[in-house]
């Protein structure tokens, strides 16, 4: 026989849980208002990127010569470019490209850096020596120069741009993860896991890696804005996303020098969205650092 359920108690518990969740969110918003603003900005940009096809008011690839360099109007809110294409629609579709490349490069760079840092810090010895010299060689080259070189060697495509940016993000992540791994591998619970018969790599993946997630999350959020900015720089220089894919940097590349005086909206709006993406990701990274750092929570 099934026991009787006190639905009033269950509903009150559910309500308490919901209230607790909303209370936690409200507390975080009050405690970290700039971080909440960063979350809002990034959520809005990601929403635009995901639902670009539904939001765009016009076809971003269709040219209208009669509308060339049209000023902002009720029909074309952000004006039109030198080929008569709607700037707002191209910015919306460009969000998918720019943010997609930024997110992809950040995730791939995080995976590369985590794997190298964990292997280097936990294994030590000659492997640590070789991997650290490799990271130092990469880190010695300015990130934009290294990315330009990789993009030129690999060729212009979405995947090659993601890979080129990811490689520049690997050294810092790898060195941070290695530093945390060197500290964690000396702790008592790692010795206890060895005494229990666990393999070295199982200890690394099950006990070391989860304890490096806090700095990893903060660095990943901070790197997102940097990756978006590097993609814009590559596209501006003609080494990033090829046509016909619109990206914010590509829009600046085709209009910044020639039309800045006659059609400033071609520069203002793509630059504004690049700034918003970098601004939002930096605010988010700072808030995550404060939340996940015990020393920050103590004050």
UniProtKB/TrEMBL annotation:
InterPro entries: BP-dependent_transpt_permease, MetI-like, MetI-like_sf. CDD domains: TM_PBP2 (cd06261). It is found in: Cell membrane. Residues 95-285 form the ABC transmembrane type-1 domain. SUPFAM superfamilies: MetI-like. GO terms for biological process: transmembrane transport. Keywords: Cell membrane, Membrane, Transmembrane, Transmembrane helix, Transport. Its main location: membrane. GO terms for cellular component: plasma membrane. It holds the Pfam family BPD_transp_1. It is a multi-pass membrane protein. Belongs to the binding-protein-dependent transport system permease family. This is ABC transporter permease. It comes from Caballeronia mineralivorans PML1(12).
């Amino acid at each position: 026989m099934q026991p009787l359920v006190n639905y009033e108690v269950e509903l009150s518990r559910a309500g308490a849980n919901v209230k607790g969740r909303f209370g936690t969110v409200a507390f975080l918003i009050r405690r970290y208002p700039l971080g909440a603003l960063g979350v809002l900005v990034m959520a809005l940009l990601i929403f635009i990127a995901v639902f670009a096809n539904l939001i765009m008011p016009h076809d971003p690839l269709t040219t209208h010569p009669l509308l060339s360099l049209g000023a902002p109007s009720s029909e074309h809110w952000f004006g039109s470019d030198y080929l008569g294409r709607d700037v707002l629609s191209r910015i919306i579709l460009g969000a998918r490209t720019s943010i997609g490349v930024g997110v992809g490069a950040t995730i791939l760079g995080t995976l590369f850096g985590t794997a190298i840092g964990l292997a280097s810090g936990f294994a030590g010895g000659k492997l640590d020596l070789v991997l650290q010299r490799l990271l130092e060689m990469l880190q010695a080259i300015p990130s934009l120069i290294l990315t330009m070189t990789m993009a030129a060697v690999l060729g212009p495509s979405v995947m090659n741009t993601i890979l080129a940016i990811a490689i520049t993000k690997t050294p810092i992540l790898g060195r941070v993860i290695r530093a945390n791994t060197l500290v964690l591998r000396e702790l008592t619970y790692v010795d206890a896991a060895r005494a229990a018969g666990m393999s070295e790599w199982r200890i690394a993946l099950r006990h070391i890696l989860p304890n490096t997630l806090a700095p990893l999350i903060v660095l990943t959020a901070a790197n997102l804005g940097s990756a978006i900015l590097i993609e814009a720089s590559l596209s501006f220089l003609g080494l990033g996303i090829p046509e016909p894919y619109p990206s914010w940097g590509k829009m600046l590349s085709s209009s910044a020098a020639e039309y800045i005086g006659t059609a400033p909206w071609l520069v203002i709006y793509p630059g504004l969205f690049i700034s918003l993406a970098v601004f939002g990701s930096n605010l988010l990274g700072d808030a995550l650092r404060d939340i996940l750092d015990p020393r920050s929570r103590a004050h």
